[in-house]
């Protein structure tokens, strides 16, 4: 009998963002980034480039309550069926 072991991802090291032209580290905290394309001017070399921000949500956190989070709504599931399933 083999038990499956859940693998947990760990971030070992984060690298700073860098300018694609001069390769100098750049922090995006100073810019008001919006979803989509953002024009960024590098403070070091003064060249402009486009930084794309996508709408990717972080993965859902696992619930500390056993069994919670396992029930999911299915497309087309009505309120009545959802109430029955949640009992």
Keywords:
87 residues; mainly beta; two-stranded antiparallel ribbon; 1 helix; 2 strands; 8% helix; 14% strand; elongated
Can you describe this structure in just a few lines?
This protein is mostly beta strands and 87 residues long. It has 1 helix and 2 strands; from the N terminus they run E-E-H.
Compute the number of strand runs: 2
Gap from first CA to last CA = 33 Å
Helix content: under 10%
Structural class, judged by helices and strands? mainly beta
Word description of this protein:
With 87 residues, the protein is mostly beta strands. It has a domain at 16-54. 8% of the residues lie in helices and 14% in strands. The chain is built from one helix and two strands, in the order E-E-H. The protein has a two-stranded antiparallel sheet. A hairpin with a 6-residue loop joins strand 1 (36-41) and strand 2 (48-53). The longest helix has 7 residues, at 79-85. It is elongated.
Question: What's the helix and strand layout?
Answer:
Layout: E1 36-41, E2 48-53, H1 79-85
Antiparallel strand pairs: 1-2
């Amino acid at each position: 009998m083999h038990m499956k072991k859940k693998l947990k991802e760990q971030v070992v090291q984060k690298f700073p963002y860098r300018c694609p032209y001069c390769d100098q580290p750049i922090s995006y905290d100073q810019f008001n980034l919006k979803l989509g394309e953002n024009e960024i001017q590098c403070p070091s070399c003064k060249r402009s480039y486009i930084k794309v921000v996508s709408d990717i949500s972080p993965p859902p956190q696992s619930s500390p309550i056993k069994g919670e989070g396992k029930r999911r709504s299915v497309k087309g599931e009505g309120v009545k069926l959802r109430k029955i399933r949640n009992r």
